[in-house]
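Consider the subject:
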Amino acid sequence: MRLATVRTDMGPFFVADIESRSQRCFSSEPPGQTRYFEKASDAALTDVLNTYGKLTIKSGTIVFPLTIGAAQDTLTIADVSGAPKTFNIANATYANIASLVAAVNTAFSAQELRLVARNVGNALYIDTSGTNIGLSAYVKADASQFVTAISLDTSAFSGTTMLTALKAIIYPSASTVALQNGDIDGVLTFADLSTADLATLCDAVRDAAAPELVETGPVLLSYVYGQISKFAGATFQPGGDRAGYPAGAAFVVLADDGSAFTL
């Protein structure tokens, strides 16, 4: 179970009716789950993106064997806006995608580009890497011989809009969240990440936006009858020093994968 806080007019919200550190069963329960919950801050989401948020460009499907000679070997590509580098891919007849990926990565390394090539089927994918990640990430291939030879995308992708794009997707309205992999991969080029990289990124986004609770007895009771039920209710009416705020759910309760939680 995950609790995604959606209200920004108040908070944080303390859930007290689940295991505290002094009440838990040490042999079978987590080390205290009582905690404050609040909507993910820009800083928390930025930390996730600056750790896992890669950008990707890709080629069309390449037919092998592929001959790269003097008329096909020049590549112009940038990992910093406005600072493209032009260099040559080794001339050869490439029998398969693996050999082409290796040659491109050798060239990237020689040019000290913060990019790494990989393949998806017979297409070449180029990911940002190293410090070229998150909100400072950038990649753009310019029209050049090798770009034409493999039909490489020449769109410019920049991480400067990554946070704004992520927030627009995971918080589609003031009272809803969208935290499944199929939602998060709508940010920029995240859909083109490797399966493992996408899974890691999505888990980290979910952890930031909707902290996880182990579904122990007290947690499930809170979900049905207690504070989680209260905070997640559409008619939740703040009281005490929050009196006067409008009624409305503070939490959206999700399954671990970001889908709707059900018992």
In short: The chain has two domains: 2-50+162-254, 59-160. The two ends are 10 Å apart (CA to CA). The mean pLDDT is 93. The chain has eight helices and 13 strands.
